[in-house]
Amino acid sequence: MCVVFVSSIFASLVLCLLGLEVTNQAQPEVDAANRWFDQMNLELKLLNHEAAEDAWQSSTLPTETVIVEKISQLAVRKAHWERTTCSRGQRYGDFNASFDRALNLLCRSARHTDEEIRNMTKLLAYLQEIYTETEVCVNRSCDDDKLWKSTFFKYHEQVSNNFSVNELCLFGEPDMERIMSRETIPLFKDKMNCMMNDQHILSWAWQSWRLAVGPPVKESYHSLIQVMNVGARRSGFQDIGEVWRAELEMPNLREIVSRLWLDVKPLYQKLHAVVRHFLKKKYPEVKNFQSGGQIPAHLLGDMWSQNWETLTASILPHEVDIDRNFRNSNCSSEQMVRKAEDFYSSMGLPMMTESFWKKSIFERAHNITKCHGTAANMYDAGDFRMITCAGNSMNDFYVILHEMGHIIYYMLAANQPTVFQDGTNSAFQEAVGDTIHLAALSPSHLIRLGFLNSSYLKPDSDDNLNRFDYSLLLKISLTKIPALPFSYIMDQYRWNLFDGSIGFDSDANNYFWYLLESEQGIRPASEIDRTGFFDAAAKYHFTDNTPYVRYFLANFLSFQILEGLCKKSIFGDVKTTQTLPFPLHRCDLYGSKRVGRLLGKALKLGRSQHWTLVLEILTGSSEISSRPLIKYFAPLTEMLDKIIDEWQLTVGW
User: Fold this and answer.
1) 352: DSSP letter
2) How confident is the model at residue 368 (pLDDT cuts 50, 70, 90)?
3) In this structure, what DSSP letter does residue 464 have?
4) CB atoms within 10 A of CB 314
5) Integer Cα distance of 341 and 345 in angstroms
6) What's the sign of the alpha-carbon dihedral 280, 285, 286, 289?
7) Which residues are within 8 A (CB) of 147 and not within 5 positions of it... i.e. 6 or more apart?
8) Positive or negative CA dihedral for 581, 583, 589, 595?
């Protein structure tokens, strides 16, 4: 505003010197622009609140036509409002930086007709219904062959309270997911009243979930892309993928992503080689599992092969089992949420609100349809909510810390105008909770939580580390590193579907597996022809139509931000060239008010500033770097090299 006003005075002086008539148009224009900005934010808040309420209902109630219709009507109204509001706001172009940023954020979306919006809403509701409400059922049987013969699927319209006592029905999340992590295999065997081969159960779970959701998603997803692309092109974009990439405000996003992946691919390949070696020893009966080849996807402890954490003990056994200690603590879901809140609040960050504790959902109830970690900003004073469906594991604690990171960001940005009440971009929004999770896994904080004895801070080698350090680094690497190729692939795949370079005929699933095999080094659980399948639909974010490259970037950002916050905690300056007095994985941010103030300074900006400024506040650099991640795992990399040399392992596939 001041820039415009000063410039207007200067222009008036020039006109006077030239002997021309001066008309005072500046202040009325300033007032009109300010009125537009204030009115826009007020109306946007009301629309966002209504959208949040509808989204919450759709997450906590079975999918019903009335909810879908409400969401559709609101989407149509918001599209009309955006077009009208943007048209008015564009009259005041180049008003000031804040005004122009708000206008850009508000007005760069794809433009769809009312009918297209209604069509997209119905398609998205159907896709989400397939993922969240489909059940894989099996008649209780004691035979591996009969397991497949008695398997069937229940979709939304088939789910009924009338079920046979001989039926065992499982949702994708968390039921099938927990089988894949091996967490509930003993319970599954018990419910089936017999002992079965673990590898067969894993293969069954992996294949049956993809068979249940892939085919019904494929045709509707193709239709969704066609409609999304029409609106994207109407707004001047080439396809909806370009719209998605624009949100991150990185014009060279593809180059950044490729560079970061190439930086860490050598570390991933070493981890892959070691994991492959130990899995091959554990499962010698698996056919065509080659010493230098791809890993069968169902053996990796995760439905999507992006988290291999459960394999830690098979590779580097240690007398301290953090997961077992956590389970033995018998923490309730709410107690775990309280522990997460304690970490954030110890740094001086806000505590959760009264509304949060009243309205959040921490355990799965019969009426919860989307049992996927969710954080909600309801755009209503102090109303922030969470869905976690938490069990009693370290992975559940991660989900809670991650989702609470979103809520902390929402709370700190709440004083911004509505249009700026979000993360500076979606990657930063995802990175906050992941950063705190890394700090919560530091040995000193595990001691504070009561899951580790203080003796495990003592070094037993010249590098000041001990066996637990290496076990912990391996555990974290198996969580973080395999997620990189998976998140890299997910959007590379969708971008190619969006721009038409990959078709929906025989190419779609074959290309998906080309990426998984070449970049991630995994292969399907069985050797059947998968041409007619649509395996990407097995991931929640695919059917939810959520861009995934944000998670790839957030993974790098979390290590980079952790290093910056550690420097701030120890030295008081993120730009210091001094070396931390401990390895990065031993950095515990608990109780650091310095860190809390710095996070508050960065996060309270919300989306009002470009992400490069926020990154510079937190790290001293305006560029995303792989260096802190590589530095964090440097001791582990040396250990992997020794294992590879000892066993003469092939690196790559």
Assistant:
1) P
2) low
3) S
4) 14
5) 6
6) positive
7) 138, 141, 196, 200, 201, 204
8) positive
Beta strands at 167-171 and 135-139: parallel, antiparallel or unpaired = antiparallel
Is the Cβ–Cβ distance between 386 and 361 less than 8 Å? yes
**What's the CATH code, domain 323-480+550-636?**
1.10.1370.40
- Helix, strand or coil, per DSSP, at residue 72: helix
Is-contact 445 436, C-beta < 8 A?
no
Q: Which of 533, 542, 491 is nearest to 210 (CA)?
A: 533
**Is 562 in contact with 627 (CB distance < 8 Å)?**
no
**Tens of pLDDT along 545-600?**
999 999 999 999 999 999 999 999 999 999 999 999 999 999 999 999 999 999 99
Distance CA 254, CA 557 (A): 17
Would you say 565 and 589 are in contact if contact means Cβ atoms under 8 Å apart?
Answer: yes
Average pLDDT of the residues of the chain: 90
30-52 pLDDT tens trace: 889 999 999 999 999 999 999 99
Tokens, residue 311: 């394999």
Radius of gyration of the chain (CA): 26
- Residue carrying the six token digits 């730009």: 575
**Residue 385's beta-bridge partner residues?**
376
Question: In angstroms, rounded to a whole number, what is the distance separating the alpha carbons of residues 653 and 637?
Answer: 19
* Opening angle at CA 113, ends 110 and 119, nearest 5: 95
What string of H, E and C letters represents the secondary structure of 587-641? CCCCCCHHHHHHHHHHHCCCCCCCHHHHHHHHHCCCCCCCHHHHHHCHHHHHHHH
Q: Which of 172, 266, 175, 163 is nearest to 214 (CA)?
A: 172
36, 89 contact by CB (below 8 A): yes
Calculate ∠ Cα 438-444-447, nearest 5°: 110
Three-state SS letters, 268-300 = HHHHHHHHHHHHHHHCCCCCCCCCCCCEEHHHC
The string over 587-603, giving b where at least 16 C-beta atoms fall within 10 Å of a residue's C-beta and e elsewhere, is: bbbbebebbbebbbebb
pLDDT in the model for residue 539 = 96
* CA–CA dist 166, 163 (Å, integer): 8
Of 53, 58, 56, the C-alpha closest to 132 is 58
Q: Are 652 and 295 in contact (CB under 8 A)?
A: no
Q: What is the pLDDT of residues 610-650, one digit of tens each?
A: 999 999 999 999 999 999 999 999 999 999 999 999 999 99
Q: Which residues 6+ apart lie within 8 Å of 12 measured at CB?
A: 22, 24, 26
Show me where the domains of the chain are located.
Answer: 2-107, 256-319+481-544, 323-480+550-636
Q: 99-128: b or e for each residue (b if 16 or more CB lie within 10 Å)?
A: bebbbebbbebbbbeeebbbbbbbbbbbbb
Q: Which two tokens stand for residue 249?
A: 């405000």
Q: CA 20, CA 610: separation in Å to the nearest integer?
A: 41
Q: What is the pLDDT of residue 331?
A: 87
